[in-house]
């Protein structure tokens, strides 16, 4: 008798130390709730016979995104509290402890409790492990774990199926003990064979060697959870299946800023899915990525072994449950859209990224890829055409006719590029962009539209016959001067040869004026370069001689092999006609392609060119003139080009043209003898002009005068960029 009393006292001390005597509080459970449940248990069994432990407010504790899952998929536990009761006070010392039970409390009443059948003599900790439908029978299953032993190392598991009114034991029972037993720390609820029905796995004493432990698996036999002496087999790799989710992925692309695209993925774990999602990844073909998400607990990461972007629930506290949709997986990138694959991995057991690409749900999507450098026009058209060829088969185009239309446009563009007919090639590509406006709504998914839109735009912006000057916004064959406070926002800058004086400025081939700036990510190249005080050169600098009085933050490279290019772009000469045209002040005129003589547009006049090839003797304007283009055009001028203050040259506002679809070939020289100092200059863009076009002036000076804004590519024998001028790159060459 004394021994039994000592054991009882020792057990009470252990229970008090673990908190079992006083109960365990979860989110949504108040002291009043706990006290009310405890009072009702005492009313039934007498004071102090049972300790109420692990009271759970199901509505407040639901965590469908956790691996174990506190769920109420059928709403049968709405407004309910689930609790566990542990026997504490035997009616007499010889009778042993009362058996434990599980109960459901709703609206201030215990609406159901199991029979006191759970042997809790040696229990030191109990908890509700999971509430979910384990066997997919339409009833929610309440899983409780009763830990025994000196440190709670051994665990028995009781599973009750709840139908909304009462619970039924669905684990095999051996006497008063559950047949589901395991070492506590190795206990897991997983789907071993991928049939959507969960198994309970763990480790227990080997029946042949009491000093050893073996894996045990308890599975559903149609009536109960029993020990499966022949457990189901996992995948050949030994990994638990994580590819049982039903996932749809929709991707869209937008352009938040120049040179950057924004990919957004909408991931839906469909209601029919058998698993929660713990990660999502997209293959990439570029290192230029910045991934993000605002989903709680999830973090993006760049993986290098298999280049991809991975979004992962790091601590697996907010898994994506079936029926959930997430739209915050994003990528910012300088890459272009390409067809790639997504991988979505379900939660089943431990996190293991080693089998991410072999044990996941996968499908087609779009992801970022580096644009080709250097651009080979024909090869890149083939790439875009391959995208068009797959649109219908992957479900990104509603009909084959639309996909075939784009393939035909691209086939024509390819032929024209091969024949060096870039104007016609651009017209073909313009048809692609024009049709995408309506097809985006009627025939193409967001993926199909993005593939064609952004790759075609890139091709148009960079299309050339392979010219090595295509990356330059400013290129001089003799000398180049960036005057005070001018800014080059994009594109390379170069002077082709080691020339001889005279030069435009400072007796060097390339002079960077006071307060001038150049952009990072590009280069300036010349035999001799002078950087004046206050200038900021963010570009990489290539030179043989350098005088630096400003700031260079780019990388410096020397020596420099010259010439920069040995073959210049083809210069297209003019065959002007004899018809001279003068547009009077405030007048307007529209010209179709053809051959004309000298054209003069007086103050406030407007000249509209419908598109095509124009041959002119010369082109001169007064102040505030508009020279507008309605379609891709080449303007070939035998003589000089000269605009006055406030003139605009470029696409008509109603078009989608860009600067690299308009090119001026100007054959004139400086003055009458072609000397550097002779006037007028071969080509002069006037004060405060706005220009969106390309200029090629091989025989004289191209002068972009003060405070003008010029987008395109500007090639000349000598190129003078005036005070305060702003330059952006958009080359046709």
Give a quick set of tags describing it.
single chain; about 725 residues; mainly beta; eleven-stranded parallel β-sheet; 7 helices; 54 strands; about 15% helix; elongated; disordered N terminus
Q: Uncertain spans, ≥5 residues at pLDDT below 50?
A: 1-23
DSSP summary, beta strand count? 54
Work out the helicity level: 10-25%
Counting DSSP H or I runs of 4 or more residues, the number of helices is 7
Describe this structure in words.
It contains seven helices and 54 strands. It has 733 residues and is mainly β. It has a 19-stranded parallel beta sheet that branches. The protein has an eleven-stranded parallel beta sheet with strand order 35-32-29-26-54-52-50-47-44-41-38, with no helix packed on it. A hairpin with a 4-residue loop joins strand 14 and strand 15. Helix 6 runs antiparallel to helix 7. The protein is elongated and about 120 Å long.
Task: Spell out the blueprint of helices and strands.
Layout: H1 2-18, H2 31-45, E1 50-57, H3 58-61, E2 80-87, E3 101-106, E4 109-113, E5 123-132, E6 140-148, E7 154-162, E8 167-169, E9 173-174, E10 177-178, E11 181-183, E12 188-190, E13 199-205, E14 213-220, E15 225-227, E16 247-257, E17 260-269, E18 277-283, E19 289-292, E20 298-303, E21 308-313, E22 324-333, E23 336-346, E24 361-369, H4 377-390, H5 400-418, H6 422-442, H7 446-462, E25 472-482, E26 487-488, E27 492-495, E28 510-512, E29 517-518, E30 523-525, E31 528-531, E32 536-537, E33 540-542, E34 545-548, E35 551-552, E36 556-557, E37 581-583, E38 588-591, E39 594-595, E40 598-601, E41 606-609, E42 612-616, E43 618-621, E44 626-629, E45 633-637, E46 641-642, E47 648-651, E48 662-666, E49 683-685, E50 690-692, E51 694-704, E52 709-712, E53 714-721, E54 726-729
Parallel strand pairs: 25-27, 25-28, 25-53, 26-29, 26-54, 27-30, 28-31, 29-32, 30-33, 31-34, 32-35, 33-36, 37-40, 38-41, 39-42, 40-43, 41-44, 42-45, 43-46, 44-47, 45-48, 46-49, 47-50, 48-51, 49-51, 50-52, 51-53, 52-54
Antiparallel strand pairs: 1-2, 2-3, 3-4, 5-6, 6-7, 7-8, 7-11, 9-10, 12-13, 13-14, 14-15, 16-17, 17-22, 18-21, 18-23, 19-22, 20-21, 23-24
